[in-house]
Amino acid sequence: MLIPLNEENLRRAARCLASGGLVAFPTETVYGLGADAFNERALARIFAVKRRPFFDPLIVHIASLAALPRLVDVSALGGAGRERLDALSRALWPGPLTLVLPKLPEVPGLATGGLATVAVRFPSHEGAAALIRLSTGAVAAPSANPFGSLSPTRAQHVERTLGDAVDLILDGGPTEIGVESTVLDLSEGCPRILRPGGASAEAIEAVVGPVRGADNPLDSSAAPPASVRSPGQLKGHYAPATALVLADGLRGLARDDECAYLFFSRESYGEEGGAKNVFILSEAGELIEAAARLFDVLHDLDGGLWSCIYTERAPQEGLGCAINDRLAKAAAGSAGFTHIPPELRRK
Ligand code: TXA
Ligand code: MG
Questions:
Q1: Phi/psi zone of residue 7: left (φ > 0), alpha (ψ -120 to 50 degrees), beta?
Q2: CATH 3.90.870.10, domain 2-208, yes or no
Q3: Which atom of ligand 1 is nearest to the CA of 144?
Q4: Which residue from 188, 221, 232, 337 lies 20 to 30 Å from 271 (Cα-Cα)?
């Protein structure tokens, strides 16, 4: 059931969570599908509702640093790790940064995909923080979408895709940032970005110095990790049902009336006005606006009107890294390769 986010409904949703229910709620990044992090039955329901494989760990959301000792084995972090945790939590929490840290045995393996680490995030969205505080103080929440599909940036996206399988959907309007949090692994040696997101590599490096990660444009040594440590790294995540093609040189491509063309900016489109099948993420080419609109626009374009969505990359800096990561994975996961370009079609 979709209900507006207000004080009364926050208390109702918090009771629901505390008694093992599932509540979808807004954060500053995307909508999350929350359950009490220590309730295994509720955690199992998250996986069932999302059709998410059990090996894909969840993020545990907190609303106070005082919750960390319930989740994290700080002694296993080592001195340098503790210093990084202190500095990052002071500088970038609350906010769109998730930290992967050694877990305490009490944290259910279901929440962490059986890993020895737990991902922790302190969201800055006031409604989310109030919900966490009013319930159990530790809320496991993946994005509130079916596994592998477009992320939800509006309550209506959740209602459309998960509907009655969720006990309550708190409607707090569109989310501000629009792409998920950055996942940063602090559990071993040099910090590594496992998923680019709302906190830029630049902002993180300003606090803790060099970080690693294949997607970090600042890491010149970037080699992909030996194994996939974060399924957000899997190709083919975040995919629309419609074929999506990530094309360089989008401007020069022959247009097809059946296809939608999503440009990053007015400048990259290069023309005044527009055609009915041309869409622009951010007129002024602002990364913040482009990220905030990304999933919303893709949800709209995925409505069945177009046989294919052609899009282009954003500049690879700041939030642009997260935008490009989501677009590349959406293209890999969609039926994009089955799209037949107009010039090859039989007339
Ligand atoms: O912005 C966000 O992070 C949103 C909102 C709701 O907070 N949540 C979100 O959750 O995006 P989800 O489940 O869609 O993505 C969590 C990512 C996955 O790629 C998962 O594999 C990774 O975090 N992750 C979680 N725990 C991990 C761990 N212990 N080690 C490595 N990666 C982990
Ligand atoms: Mg997700």
A1: alpha
A2: yes
A3: 6
A4: 337
